[in-house]
Amino acid sequence: MILEESVDQIFEDAGGCGLFQVFVYFAIAFGMSAPSFFIYEIGFLIQKPSEYICTYKSETDMPECTVDNICNDSVNSAFSSWEADPDSEKTLNNW
Prior knowledge:
This protein is an alpha+beta fold. The protein has helices at about 1-15, 20-40, 40-45, 65-70, and strands at about 50-55, 80-85.
């Protein structure tokens, strides 16, 4: 009992729990949790679609529609356009 009373007395002598302590509590709690809103999104940002839909310039030259071919300068001239397959499981919609 003596220890509890002395701890309570020390807390009251230090100013108790006023508006400043409440403000500081929420400021620290928000400051510690704010980066998680950005860190948890990194997992989505590093994903890349596994399938693509390509439109070809000609019917004769039709290389496979893959990331390697799309990014390869010697092959990508055969594509008139390309996009991520919206039905693919790893495609993020509206990005």
